Task: inverse folding
């Protein structure tokens, strides 16, 4: 079932990882999960930037035009989906170094369910205050990292000690991907695809 593991990864993550490992629902289910969950950050970002306004310090909220927010939300959606697939590929590529021989589907499942808390915490954008978003973002990252560290030994079938180093390598790759996405955004802004503010 699409999104069938959603409840489990929050209530009993280790047990849910074992269920995911046992079932291996395939690329189609993982892809469906990613495509649905990845809609949340762009959706909430669009709503908050167009209808609520971003509050930075004192002063009036900052709004984006609908056209600008829509184009940026679409770009964000594709960047998130590509980022999950890239992280899955890097996890798959590094696996042999750590004595694991997963299929790409296993690596994709790991990336998809690990990214889920980070994507879902984007609901915090409906209260767009910097301090609140920073706290919510840290909580989302922390739980995603926790899922990664608990999921790697189970899904990749390696000892926990080796899984810790493997997970740390994946976290490093994830940070590199994030920096690459941010750098790509800045480059696009230089070509006139940046935000347009409404007054």
Result:
């Amino acid at each position: 079932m699409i999104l069938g593991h959603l409840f489990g990864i929050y209530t009993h993550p280790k047990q849910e990882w074992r269920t995911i490992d046992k079932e291996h629902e395939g690329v189609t289910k993982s892809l469906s999960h990613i495509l649905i969950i990845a809609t949340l950050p762009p959706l909430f970002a669009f709503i908050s930037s167009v209808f609520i306004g971003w509050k930075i310090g004192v002063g009036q909220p900052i709004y984006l035009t609908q056209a600008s927010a829509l184009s940026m939300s679409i770009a964000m959606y594709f960047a998130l989906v590509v980022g999950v697939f890239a992280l899955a590929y890097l996890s798959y590529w590094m696996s042999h170094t750590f004595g694991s021989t997963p299929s790409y589907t296993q690596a994709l499942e790991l990336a998809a369910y690990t990214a889920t808390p980070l994507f879902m915490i984007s609901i915090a954008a409906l209260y767009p205050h910097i301090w609140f978003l920073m706290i919510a973002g840290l909580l989302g990252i922390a739980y995603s990292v926790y899922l990664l560290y608990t999921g790697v030994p189970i899904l990749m079938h390696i000892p926990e000690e080796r899984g810790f180093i493997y997970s740390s390598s994946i976290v490093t790759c994830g940070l590199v991907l994030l920096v690459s996405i941010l750098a790509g955004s800045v480059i696009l802004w230089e070509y006139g695809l940046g935000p347009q503010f409404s007054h």
Observations:
- DSSP finds eight helices and two strands in the chain.
